[in-house]
Amino acid sequence: MTPALPLGRVLSVLRTMQCFPAITVTSRLAFLLLLVFPTAGVACQLCYDAARQMVSVGQQIDMADSAVIVESAATVRQFKIIAVVKGKDTVGEVLSEPVTNLDAASASATGSSLLVHVSTGAPWVNLGAISAEHTGWLRQLAATSGDRGDRPRSAWPRVMQPSSMLSDAGWRQRIVLVLPHLESSDALVAQIAWEELARAPYANLDVVRSRIDAKTIEGWLYDPKVMPRHAVYSLLLGFVGGPADAERLESRIEAAWKSHDATNLGAMIAAELELRGPSRVDWVEAKYFADRRRTMPEIEAALLALNVHGDANRTVPRARVIEAYRTFIKERPPMAGFVAQQLADWDYWDAATEYAALLASDAIKDPASHFAVVNYLQRAAAAKAALR
Fold first, then answer.
1. Letter string b/e over residues 259-279, b meaning 16 or more CB atoms within 10 A of that residue's CB
2. For the chain, N or C: smaller number of CB within 10 Å?
């Protein structure tokens, strides 16, 4: 049976709807029933809030038939190819199709830009200024999309795109390629590097171990100029940091807990779990599941942190995450549907009796959560029938 939309994604959509005060919470939840048919794809859930509005430059290169670096030709608004990243175009060729997305900052200091082209007759799209010295790196990046081996399983929906079809091996290659270019002096290169890490599956991020210095990441985390990228850098710190980094993360999480600040909270909790291991799950249960003062964004962040660890099934075993989810169901019956989708995706059906009881007692009031539980029970029944 096809899985429905995860409640973590549901809650993200809800937050974007909060700018419409005339829409009640119940109405917003009911609207989300339209979103239960998922699309395949991968992305790190903890970086999704930072990356959800974008189609990354890497994705646009993957989807394009051609990608080239150009410089202005003799004629105004004409461009000559100086390097080919992808496709069958020729160096020295002057583009005959129009170019869109031109602006004053569209060329690098050397006067070159990265363009992509989808099909014959369509205009070229300018992705921004870049030096031709990055051509080899861009070719390597584009080549990783050709790896179509076993793809990572993820419940985080994305619009189906070629780059979403990368295998685990393809993602690991891509992560290694972009890692040295984080915060590059070339703005577009730095953007590509961050965007690709932001949408990479969490389970593949462990390839960064020993490839980047924890002090470098800590420096970025204290730099307000790169604050939109802090979620990604927090996750990386979880893989390369040590005891001192874990203590600093704990201090940040404690401060966030006291102030009810959910900014990058999920990424910080996930990183600390990566550094501290399953023993820290008890703290998450006590501080976020049992504490009735926690806000919805805080609860969502804690659930997402556990979610990516359960998917990876490595540092924190999936069995321990499932145990935490069962604790969440008991502590917060009205929100029990928030974890139903993930339990179903992990083929865990032992919560069926508990979920059926919650439905019978009318403990779950909001339509989206109710739907998620019904969907879980339907999938559980189908799984049992298949076994029979």
1. eebbebbbbbbbbbbbbbebe
2. C
Q: In 10 A of CB 318, how many CB atoms?
A: 16
Cα distances (Å, whole numbers) of residue 208 to 56, 214, 239, 297 = 21, 11, 7, 28
12/28 Cα distance (integer angstroms): 12
* pLDDT tens digits, one per residue of 161-170: 333 568 899 9
pTM: 0.81
Rounded to a whole number, what is the distance in angstroms from the first to the last CA of the chain? 16
CA-wise closest residue to 231 among 190, 189, 265, 281: 265
Q: Distance (Å, rounded) from C-alpha 151 to C-alpha 136?
A: 26
CA distances from 47 to 24, 187, 230, 247, 294 (A): 28, 20, 9, 22, 21
Which of 53 and 142 is assigned the larger pLDDT? 142
Q: Where are the domains of the chain?
A: 7-56+152-387, 57-135
**At 53, which amino acid appears?**
Q
Q: Quickly count: other Cβ atoms within 10 Å of residue 330's Cβ.
A: 12
What is the C-alpha to C-alpha distance for residues 367 and 28, in angstroms, rounded to an integer?
Answer: 9
Q: Is 385 exposed, middle or buried (0-12, 13-18, 19+ CB in 10 A)?
A: exposed
- Give the number of residues written for the chain: 388
